[in-house]
Amino acid sequence: MKIKRLAFLTIILTYILIVFGGYVASSESGMGCGPEWPLCNGLMIPVLEGDTLIEFAHRIIGAILGIMTAVLYFNIQKSNQVRDLDKASKVLMLLLIIQILLGAAVVWLDLPAIIVSVHLMVAMVFLALLILIWRRADEQPSRAKIKIDQSIQNQFKVVLILLLLTLFLGAYIKHRSFGLACSWFECTNGFMPVSFPEMIQTGHRLLAGVLAFYIFILTYLSLKNRWEVRLQNRLIAASLLVLGQIIIGILTIISYIEISWAVLHLAFGTALFAIICEAGVFASSSSRIKRLGEKRSNHYYG
């Protein structure tokens, strides 16, 4: 199987695992296998029903993802065409090991909020690396003029950092049961938070607001300044996801954190992260491909 296709399939499975992990948390099935890992209720294959079925299914998906990641790594190592991805593939394997250890710690320590939140962050970085590998697996040098400068690439880096912080706080709020500390519009004593849960919830919302504004501005600038069309399309898609996230976030609170809305909130957030990450890699790859083309051209005519 081609490395690009394998990387894409691994991205899809990673996305499914992250969203399904949100369902495990929202349905309170995280301890469905008891405080045991890698066994589930003392068995390799437990009685598959209720919370045990949900948690065990999550572990099975994770195991399949681990195998696919290992296959991707070895394919990259054997391929002469993508040896420049050697470092990325090694970091990917390191993140996989860290994720396995964090997953075990989450079970052994009975779902501590901070470790669960870090677990999600590592998963997001893992997803970002997969997107990088997928985008660069079959790059071809080009001498075409591409209107993507370094300042634009830096903007995507800022957005990704804001996204990671927002997702981290969201996960922490979820696992500390702070989701209803404030209503969808204000907290108990008005707009100013008083208690720690209200402060964390308000901080999450403010960060999400800054992030949304940033993405909207970038989308506007991309259209106004006629950035590369494919980059414009990605930013438009990101803006639509942000609008969806705002609506789903409100519905999640109004519904008293109903499972379906909570999972959809994570699904949209993860999709937003993936699109912004892919757009950032596209922007940096475009400049990189152009430089490679210029170097090869100079070498040929030199």
TrEMBL record:
The chain crosses the membrane at residues 7-25, 56-76, 88-108, 114-134, 155-173, 206-223, 235-257, 263-283. One of its GO terms (biological process) is heme A biosynthetic process. GO terms for molecular function: metal ion binding; oxidoreductase activity. InterPro entries: COX15/CtaA_fam (IPR003780), COX15/CtaA_HemeA_synthase (IPR050450). GO terms for cellular component: membrane. It is a multi-pass membrane protein. Pfam families: COX15-CtaA. Pathway: Porphyrin-containing compound metabolism. Keywords: Cell membrane, Disulfide bond, Heme biosynthesis, Iron, Membrane, Metal-binding, Oxidoreductase, Transmembrane, Transmembrane helix. It is found in: Membrane. This is Cytochrome aa3 controlling protein. The lineage of its organism: Bacteria, Bacillati, Bacillota, Bacilli, Bacillales.
